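Practice problem: predict the structure.
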Amino acid sequence: MEILYIGFFIILDFLIFNYLTKTVQYRRNICVLLVTLLCLFTALHFANPLGLAIPNHLFFILTTFSLVLFVFHVGKKISLWLLVRINNERNKNMDMLTKSFSYLIDYATPILILIFQLYSIIDNY
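Answer:
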């Protein structure tokens, strides 16, 4: 069951990452299939037919961490808008700052959240 939870959170984080950054192009059928698998697994988690599911509060916390990526994305957009608005002049340092900040939020944060989720799943079993 541990492997299924790890796969669930990897797929969930990948779908959210891809939705926010649009870096990986794949067909719509694959996205529908992955979302369907996520919904089925969530239903399986709450049904808990074998009694091997992680506790519901932990599942809720780990899922909430994935959804926090949307909050970080909106916060990044607002922060960059304010930064450009306050500094009217565009220079090379400003471009480097905005690119590094975007990289940190778009790529490093999802990886750190996934590491936290994997550690929590492995530690719970």
